[in-house]
Amino acid sequence: MANLNSVKSNVLSVFYVDAFTKKPFSGNGAAVCLLPYDYDVNNLTRQKIASEINLSETAFVKIIKEGDTFQNGKRFALDWFTPLCQVPLCGHATLASAAVLFTEYNNESEVLEFETVSGILKAQRVQDNRIEIDLPAYKSDLVYGKYEKVVKAVVKDLPVENIVLSVSNKLLIHLCDNITRKELEGITTNDAELLTAEPTDIKGVIVTLKGSKKDCVDEEGNQYDFISRYFAPWFGISEDPVTGAAHSVLAPYWSNILQQKDFYARQCSRRGGELHIRCLCDRILLSGNAVIVIKGQLHL
């Protein structure tokens, strides 16, 4: 167990965590930076730290109640930064933060609570050494024509079943069922082309495909209900390896299409990762494994 609660105020504990995977060097990497009760850094410094670390997201977990520690605290403040900017929601960095508290600090709480700009997010340990987080469920509506340039820039001439836009400004492109996993994984994008095609409204593009027994299975032969990829150059991320926030859009969408509430999904980036999802009324429960790969100190 880490013994890093009592560090000098200008030396902070930092961890690199691979989320939504059981193996190092896969899933989505996030940095988790811990801030004690009596020390903080402003957003400008947080942004510099995130840019220096240069992972897709850096999470800042802060003790907010005097007397709490990372071992016994139940509620913490949580913020997320990409190398470019602060973001309103990040699922994999939330899961990574919970993994650090539960694994490295043996946190005593059954349920952790994080105060974020997107409201209170909860995390708890569940079966198979997974951590479950609750996230908002974002509804989406069909859109026609307006985002044709973006769609073309991402999927080229692949046939499209539906195009929807979520209230979180993520564009979801549902490919036709005859498209293969290999074709989805073969998609390439150009950041400059995407930013030129849609410079304002869109904050991310999800490309998704219904799972099949033919080629959408894990190493044990279990079928994925759906697979996806996610591109977000608007936040300085060409492609995010595994994205919890994207599944806040994907799960409600596929729940409506497939008429089911529980899903097993894979995000098919180069690193890749697997997610277990349950749809509730206005929330989703998202669970996955996490591996801590680097532990260290940040000197300010």
TrEMBL record:
Pfam entry (one): PhzC-PhzF
Top-level taxon in the UniProt lineage: Eukaryota
Active site annotation, chain numbering: E57
Keywords attached to this entry: Isomerase
Statement: the UniProt record of this protein carries the keyword Isomerase: yes
SUPFAM superfamilies given in the database record: Diaminopimelate epimerase-like
GO molecular-function terms, A-Z: isomerase activity
InterPro entries named among the record's database cross-references: Phenazine_PhzF-like
GO cellular component, one term: cytoplasm
Alphabetical list of Gene3D superfamilies matching this protein: Diaminopimelate Epimerase, Chain A, domain 1
Family designation: Belongs to the PhzF family.
Database matches in NCBIfam families: PhzF_family
Protein name: Phenazine biosynthesis-like domain-containing protein 1
Organism: Nephila pilipes
